[in-house]
Amino acid sequence: MTYNSSLLRLLDERGYIHQMTDAEGLDALASKQVVPGYVGFDATASSLHVGNLVSIMLLRRLQQAGHKPVVLMGGGTTRIGDPTGKDEVRKMLSDEAIEANIASIRTAFERFLTFGDGPTDAVMVNNHDWLGQIGYIEMLQKVGTHFTVNRMLSFDSVKLRLEREQPMTFLEFNYMILQGYDFRHLSDTMGVRLQMGGSDQWGNIVNGVELARRMDGKEVFGLTTPLITKADGSKMGKSVSGAVWLNEDALSSYDYWQFWRNCDDRDVGKFLRLFTDLPLDEIARLEALEGGAINDAKVILANEATRLCRGEEAARAAEATAAQTFAGGGLGEDLPTVEVSAEGIRLGAACTALGFTASNGEAKRKIGEGAVKLDDALMDDPGMLITVPAGETRKLSLGKKKHGILKGA
Fold it and tell me: How far is CA 81 from the centre of its chain?
């Protein structure tokens, strides 16, 4: 389909569109007025990760095309937990923890979006502000009558859990109703006309579209992105050592940069289109590079992605650290660092402290596999005591791509 609106042309050219509830209607609306559109994010941790990044970039593209991004933080729905793709009931968080997580997550959004009071400035809202006020009987009367249990049981988020014979609480079963109500509320109070999200949210988005029509007679729209996977088939958002967090206090800028630099050759073009602002003709040139030259494109991807998320200075520092560590054989200043007291630190504990491994048990396995080096010398004893004189440094490495500094305190 050929789109008339700059919004859908932009999203289509860069590979964001998977499904739309009414492509022609949304295209016509976006051609004639500012469209407020939202994506919802639950506040289950103090940082989002790169698995959330395509949705954040959707909001960025919305703003770049002259429309209004609305970031919906699930202060209310986080208290329930989205069952989509989950086999277990989510751990309950305190009100204080949820509020702290929202404040922390906002700092990442401020890198990608321009917030303010203007017609296309981004805003952040919290669904606890309205979900926390509505009464149970009122919710059943006003909203519950528009959902059939038959239809709810047909959605993948419910059906897959039941097929796996995993318990689903009545609390979780209500999640899709509350998410649908969010869309209806934002449409009614803020004029929001579009909800966006990943492909796994399609059923929830359609619920909201139908609820706004049934309760208010309003036409609203839904759009989902394709499932973003890496060339090896693994889910976007994870690295060998765990989640790739967006916030600096959860993951160093060097490790964030390295995630992009180490991507598969086959992913370079897709990631450049989705996660950077580089022009499409430049991306076409970069993804056509072959052999060792593709590494130049990966460095550009890492620089551009890190610059958006962490800032120009962080991107430059990470690139310099990588060059110094890998090309010069030295110790770059941006490497993860652990201070070592005069008593020293065991080799296995040092691997875990630097974030190379999730536990000392995993560290022991890696050391046994011959993957760990201290000052470029292969180590085989996880219990070996490492000492570092005050003011001096030693390099610890896991494989060829993970390096850290042990600094004498």
Answer: 17
